[in-house]
Amino acid sequence: MSPETSKLLQFIQNHWLLWLGFTITFGLLFFEEFKNNFKLTSNNSVTPQEAINLINHEHAVVIDVRNSQDFETGSLVNAHNIPKEEIEKNNQKLTHYKEKAVILVATTGQEAQKVAKHLKAINFNKVYVLAEGIHSWRQANLPIVKK
């Protein structure tokens, strides 16, 4: 064992409370820093039934990120059509929704995941993506409104 390793082990033994505090603090900082990234890949998708609960109980705002032609073929009731490209260029349209739950709808959900990552980066706290997009809503035989 090298002298540096020996000194480190001796320090840890002599100051184990200090070392424990450092380890816990570092662990908590690491967890806090990276928890949002992990949420974006797995925990922010919602089923149609979960989306209905968010809309009814948290007054979630539904934003359809598809282009206007796709939006006109049918979307969720009271959905706002703000295409993905507009969101990435101009965040001003969404600033008044920052404190609300936001459900993003796309064709299959993939494009909405990219928008969700963008919104999380600009401090939107409650961003959800309709899993499998508008297709899952239609498969659940839920109401579709044509604009």
Describe the structure in your own words.
The protein has helices at 3-14, 16-43, 48-58, 68-72, 84-89, 110-121, 133-139, and strands at 45-46, 61-64, 80-81, 102-105, 127-130. It is of the alpha/beta class and 147 residues long. It folds into 2 domains: 3-35; 44-139, Oxidized Rhodanese, domain 1 (3-Layer(aba) Sandwich), CATH 3.40.250. Helix 1 crosses helix 2 (16-43) and helix 2 (16-43) packs across helix 6. The longest helix is centred in the N-terminal third of the chain and has 28 residues, at 16-43. The protein is elongated and about 75 Å long. The model has no long low-confidence stretch (mean pLDDT 88).
Which descriptors apply to this entry?
147 residues, alpha/beta, Oxidized Rhodanese, domain 1
Task: Describe the secondary-structure layout.
Blueprint: H1 3-14, H2 16-43, E1 45-46, H3 48-58, E2 61-64, H4 68-72, E3 80-81, H5 84-89, E4 102-105, H6 110-121, E5 127-130, H7 133-139
Parallel strand pairs: 1-5, 2-3, 2-4, 4-5
Helix pairs in contact: 1-2, 2-6
Instruction: Give the strand content.
Output: 5-15%
Could you list the spans in which at least 5 consecutive residues all have pLDDT below 50? none
- Shape from CA axes? elongated
- CATH class membership of the largest domain: Alpha Beta
| CATH architecture descriptor name of the largest domain | 3-Layer(aba) Sandwich
Q: What gyration radius follows from the Cα positions, in whole Å?
A: 22 Å
Report helical residue fraction: 55-70%
Structural category is alpha/beta
- Average pLDDT works out at 88
Widest β-sheet, arrangement of strands: 1-5-4-2-3
The CATH topology name of the largest domain reads Oxidized Rhodanese, domain 1
Number of helices: 7
Counting copies of identical and different chains, the oligomeric state is single chain
Topology, number of strands: 5
